[in-house]
Design goal:
single chain, alpha+beta, two-stranded antiparallel ribbon, 4 helices, 18% helix, 13% strand, globular
Length: 114
Amino acid sequence: MKISLNFLKRRPERDKSEVETDIQIDSDEWEKICRRCGACCYDKLVDENDKLIKKTPCRFLDLETRMCKVYEHRFEIEKDCIKLTPENIKKFDWLPDDCGYVVYFGLRRKKGES
């Protein structure tokens, strides 16, 4: 199931240090930004420069629906599950440019950046 990003207000691209929001990260409004691509639900192996080397799906990610099978309790069940916040989103270069949070905060990478 793909969720449209049309409802998101695209913000102009900006410096990653400028990411801020009044949205509470535990709110429905925060959840609506996510487009359920599942990209953050992969175990990532990064090198010493934080460059992505390898990724494998989390054991709780349904690869067909891209939904977490234990979503409501994911942080208790999977110790490595990452809670996305405005602070850490700007650091995660592995999030795709079409991630709802990347789009919402205007954090698309420049061409040629990896």
